[in-house]
């Protein structure tokens, strides 16, 4: 039986505004029937702090530290918490809510899409598995996160190795389309990450950073051999094809598509009104 063909786009390193604008544009194009389902890999130039759609920047983010580190800054169209995009492979998946393989519930759709990431980790020789919060306390922690840092706790069906989170994802559904994007950590500068958020005092920050070490880990901290970005791309490309039982066809954006994305990037994702609105 022939497998369904999805598009695969690798846009390499781009600005924070371009990255978010392209994810939004792909969602729009898919909703309009102009684009089949798509998987995209990307990186960030400069390294960037992204915040979730509902986060309050003034309350949670130390913008002076963001600037001091020379980082980009952008608000995502998806929920979730703050992510430092630096040494990672970032992915996005755009597919219709009505796709026959997509469950109706957000949580179950996460599991289906994340099957591709799970298989990618296995291709890298890492024994990843899905996190399922078991206790009432763990489930409550998902509803009321104590920290503004994304990798501070595994959510339903997020990817874990040796009990620690190795990938963080967020999802939105708009115009009948699912957009899920996320970070697969290759390396992590914890000191830099924790310097970007506001805390009630230094002791709280230290306590959170110490606890964080038990909750999140980057691939190269646990892999027996150093994994490069290119090796990760190969593994996760294969992983998505297997996990979603699809064929991936490489695609280059046309000039008019790029122009549309650049216009959206400028008008929305570079505007203070969008990035600081909450």
TrEMBL record:
Pfam families reported in the protein's UniProt record: LplA-B_cat
Annotated pathway: Protein modification; protein lipoylation via endogenous pathway; protein N(6)-(lipoyl)lysine from octanoyl-[acyl-carrier-protein]
Subunit structure: Monomer.
Protein name, as recorded: Octanoyltransferase LipM
UniProt keyword Acyltransferase, yes or no: yes
Record bears the keyword Ribosomal protein: no
GO molecular function, one term: lipoyl(octanoyl) transferase activity
Gene: lipM
Catalysis performed (reactions): octanoyl-[ACP] + L-lysyl-[protein] = N(6)-octanoyl-L-lysyl-[protein] + holo-[ACP] + H(+)
Function: Catalyzes the transfer of endogenously produced octanoic acid from octanoyl-acyl-carrier-protein onto the lipoyl domain of GcvH, an intermediate carrier during protein lipoylation.
Enzyme class: transferase
């Amino acid at each position: 039986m022939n497998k369904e063909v999805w598009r695969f786009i690798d846009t390499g390193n781009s600005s924070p505004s371009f990255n978010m604008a392209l994810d939004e544009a792909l969602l729009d194009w898919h909703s309009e029937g102009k684009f089949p389902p798509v998987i995209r890999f990307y990186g960030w130039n400069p390294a960037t702090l992204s915040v979730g759609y509902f986060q309050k920047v003034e309350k949670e983010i130390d913008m002076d530290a963001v600037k001091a580190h020379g980082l980009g800054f952008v608000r995502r169209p998806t929920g979730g918490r703050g992510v430092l995009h630096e040494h990672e492979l970032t992915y996005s998946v755009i597919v219709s809510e009505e796709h026959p393989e997509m469950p109706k519930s957000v949580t179950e759709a996460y599991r289906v899409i994340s099957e591709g990431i799970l298989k990618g980790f296995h291709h890298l020789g890492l024994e990843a598995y899905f996190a399922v919060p078991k206790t009432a306390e763990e489930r409550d922690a998902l509803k009321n996160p104590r920290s503004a840092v994304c990798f501070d706790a595994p959510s339903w069906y997020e990817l874990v190795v040796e009990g620690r989170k190795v990938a963080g994802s967020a999802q939105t559904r708009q115009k009948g389309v699912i957009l899920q994007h996320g970070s697969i950590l290759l390396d992590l500068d914890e000191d830099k990450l924790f310097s970007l958020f506001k805390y009630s005092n230094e002791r709280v920050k230290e306590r959170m950073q110490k606890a964080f070490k038990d909750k999140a880990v980057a691939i190269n901290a646990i892999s027996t051999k150093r994994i490069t970005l290119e090796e990760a791309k190969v593994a996760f490309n294969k992983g998505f094809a297997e996990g979603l039982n699809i064929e991936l066809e490489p695609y280059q954006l046309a000039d008019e598509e790029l122009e549309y994305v650049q216009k959206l990037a400028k008008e929305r994702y570079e505007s203070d009104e969008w990035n600081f609105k909450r």
